[in-house]
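cron nightly-structures :: item 1 of 1
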Amino acid sequence: MIHFPVSEEKNRWLRERMEALGVREEDIEEKFIRSSGSGGQKVNKTSTCVYLRHISTGIEVKCMRERSQPLNRFLARRELVEKISKGLGQIISDDIKMAKIRRQKARRKKRSQLKIQV
């Protein structure tokens, strides 16, 4: 499997989830597209957007969150695995924990922005 520029723990988690769901790298069609939005000239000149399609299920994911293509490849695979697991009706406790953390971070960010405005 490909090694992505994230922590070894996250790489291991992705590898294990893909194996548990039976998703292989050979089953994934990957394309690189030019991104749009923030990131400046670099984004306009390089193909940092990652498009993944799982051939057997037909699920498609497009990721252009970061300016780095390798990081977008990891994020796209993570989204693809989440979509496949939701499609199979599997909700893993890790997903629930991650969603809770995301909500907490969003709440904190909102509070800090309100403090700045006042």
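cron nightly-structures :: done
The radius of gyration is 16 Å.
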